[in-house]
Design goal:
about 200 residues; mainly alpha; about 70% helix
Length: about 200
C-alpha cells in the first residue's frame, strides 16, 4: 500500500493518520520512535506484511512482464492508491478533497515525524499528491517520481504503459483484496501489543 491507502486504513481503524504514514519512512525498531507514533508504525508494518504475502498480490505480480516483476510490488502499491482515489466514494463518506486536507493537517501538526517525511510534506500538500492519484496522469507522475528516487530507475522503463495495459487485472485484485485489508486493520488495532499503546 502507498500513501493514500495507509492514510485511509488509519482512518478506517481510528488510529493516527500521521503515525501510520510515518511507517513508510521509519526504519529500525519501533521502540526507537516516540510513543505517539508506535501504534501507527506497528499497524503499518502489519499491513505491508499481509499485502506482500497475500495470494492475490502474488498472482497479480505474476501477470507483469518478467522485466518488471522486481518493481511490480511498488507499481501495485501506487496503482492501488489510484484505484482507491478513483472509487473513493465507495470506501469513505468524506470527499477525497476534504480527507486530503485533513490528512495534510494531521501530518503537519504531528511532532517528531521522520525527517524524510517532514521534508516532503510541503510538496505533498502544494501538489496535492493524495487527490492527484485519482487521475491516470497523477498515477503516471507518481510512478515517474518514485522511479527517480530509486537507485535503478531503468527498472521502471515502460512501466506506465504496462500498468495501463494491466488495468483490469489490477482493478480486479484491488476490489477483492482491499475490503479484506480494511477488515484486517480493524481487527489488528484491537490486537496492538500493549507496549505500543
Amino acid at each position: 500500500m502507498n500513501f493514500l491507502s495507509h492514510l485511509h486504513l488509519a482512518d478506517n481503524s481510528h488510529t493516527s493518520l500521521a503515525a501510520n504514514l510515518a511507517g513508510d519512512f521509519a526504519k529500525g525498531h519501533i521502540d526507537n520512535y516516540p510513543k505517539h507514533l508506535q501504534q501507527g508504525l506497528w499497524l503499518h508494518r502489519q499491513i505491508d506484511q499481509i499485502t506482500d504475502g497475500h495470494e492475490l498480490i502474488k498472482e497479480l505480480i505474476s501477470v507483469f512482464p518478467k522485466q518488471h516483476r522486481r518493481v511490480a510490488p511498488i507499481l501495485i502499491d501506487l496503482c492501488f492508491d489510484h484505484m482507491l482515489a478513483k472509487y473513493w466514494d465507495e470506501y469513505h463518506p468524506q470527499s477525497l478533497h476534504d480527507f486530503s486536507l485533513k490528512a495534510y493537517d494531521d501530518l503537519e501538526s504531528c511532532p517528531q515525524l521522520p525527517l524524510s517525511l517532514t521534508d516532503i510534506l510541503p510538496r505533498m500538500r502544494s501538489e496535492n499528491w493524495l487527490l492527484s492519484y485519482a487521475s491516470r496522469q497523477g498515477l503516471n507522475q507518481a510512478i515517474t517520481s518514485v522511479a527517480k528516487r530509486l537507485s535503478k530507475p531503468e527498472l521502471f522503463t515502460d512501466s506506465t504503459r504496462i500498468v495501463e495495459r494491466l488495468d483490469l487485472e489490477i482493478e480486479t485484485a484491488f476490489r477483492l483484496f482491499y475490503p479484506q485489508l480494511m477488515a484486517y486493520t480493524r481487527i489488528w488495532v484491537r490486537k496492538t501489543p500493549e507496549q505500543y499503546l
